[in-house]
Amino acid sequence: MSACDLCGGTHHDLIFTGHDRLFGIAGEFPLVRCQDCGLVFVNPRPSFEEMGRFYPQDDYDLYNKAAGLKDRGMDELGRLLGPRKGRIDKYRDHGRLLDIGFGDGSFLYFMRECGWDVAGVDYNQKMVELVRDELGIDAVTGQLEDAKYPDGAFDVVTLWGVLEHVQSPRRTIEEISRITGDGALLVIYTQNAASPEARWLGKDWFIYEVPRHLYSFTPDSLAKLLAQAGFCVAETVFETPLYYCQMNWQYFKERRLGRRNDVIHNPTLVDRLVTKLLSFYRRAVNGGPRSSAMTVYAVKRESCIPGDAGDGTKAAVIAGGTGGSTTAAPGTGETAAGASATETRGNGEHGADQ
Ligand SMILES: [Zn+2]
User: Fold this and answer.
1) Omega of the bond leading into 211 within 30 degrees of 0 (cis)
2) C-alpha to C-alpha distance for 199 and 201, rounded to whole angstroms
3) What is the pLDDT of residues 298-348, one digit of tens each?
4) Does 14 have pLDDT greater than 60?
5) CA of residue 31 to ligand 1 center, whole Å
6) CATH topology classification for 56-203+215-240+294-347
């Protein structure tokens, strides 16, 4: 059994024992919640080497996307990635940016074309070679620690659907703290385990995604993790991508009703009807803290305001920072879901995405 990565606690409650539902690769994985801090994680945790077989490296779709970036044009990329850039610009509008787990490289490419000095690290060697050789982007293969970036090298670090995949989020955030300077911005997009869907659906909550998602955060547990390494949450943007709702329905009906088909690409009449109903549900929760995904914007400071740093949705930053706020992002759901195809390590969601 593994101790909790966030608080070191050894007492947890079993949520369920699950398996890989995306690719059907063999193995049973208990998912637990820490009794002390609430962090949700796969326990025992498979090693980095053991996890390799859950990330097929020959992802031609991903490869083609990266190879076609130059032809896509900035207008099209701007529609997809502009909202992300816009939010980052509120904190920093130029400098050196690192994207961890860059997937198809689209975000790095877009930001570079917008004038940013960019670098990336990703587990998928083929993608790293393509992004480096074809797009001329500074890219490194492996985990973040393998890149051995110098102290204080970056102004902005982004992880789009990546932190839930890493072996130790605590070590990853500590390393990010080392390679960033004071006032640096850290941006993390991940699922929200505090959403009611997680409770209602349990094993069928698509985005638990065991075993590739080794961790599931709530706004609270993520803020605690960040505060330990000197990052204060300035803003949390919540969203419920319709794609998540559709995949939830697919998993629900597969396991509980014994009906199996691709709800997104090959929907039945019932699937279309359910999707319509789910889109009403989505509209009701989208943008609020009950949403199924969140993007956290955190700023590196000497200290966060005492007593506030532990609360992801209320945390504020000291001295000249943006006041703490919780922001809705209506209408950005699909955009972010599409862009979350840029997952690390051959990316978990990507196989079923788009
Ligand atoms: Zn814990």
Assistant:
1) yes
2) 6
3) 999 988 875 444 444 343 333 333 334 454 444 333 333 333 333 334 333
4) yes
5) 13
6) Rossmann fold (3.40.50)
| pLDDT value at residue 235 | 95
The Cα-based distances of 312 to 34, 169, 307, 348 in angstroms read 18, 16, 11, 25
The Å distance, Cα 71 to ligand 1 centre, comes to 46
pTM (predicted TM-score): 0.87
Q: What's the 36 CA to ligand 1 centre distance in angstroms?
A: 5
- At 224, list the tokens: 């605690």
* Interval between CA 328 and ligand 1 midpoint (Å): 28
Give the SS3 label for residue 47: coil
At 185, the pLDDT band (50, 70, 90 cuts) reads very high
- Average of pLDDT values for 220-233? 96
CATH 3.40.50.150 intervals, the chain: 56-203+215-240+294-347
Q: What is the pLDDT of residues 20-47, one digit of tens each?
A: 998 999 999 999 999 999 999 999 999 9
Q: How much distance in Å is there from the Cα of 40 to the middle of ligand 1?
A: 8
Q: How far is the CA of 221 from the centre of ligand 1 (A)?
A: 9
C-alpha of residue 155 to centroid of ligand 1, in Å: 30
pLDDT, residue 70, reads 85
Start-end of H helices in the chain = 48-51, 60-67, 69-89, 106-113, 125-135, 144-147, 169-178, 196-201, 219-228, 242-256, 269-285, 333-339
Which residues touch 68 (CB under 8 Å, ≥6 apart)? Answer: none
CA of residue 11 to ligand 1 center, whole Å: 8
Q: Distance, CA 9 to ligand 1 centroid (Å)?
A: 5
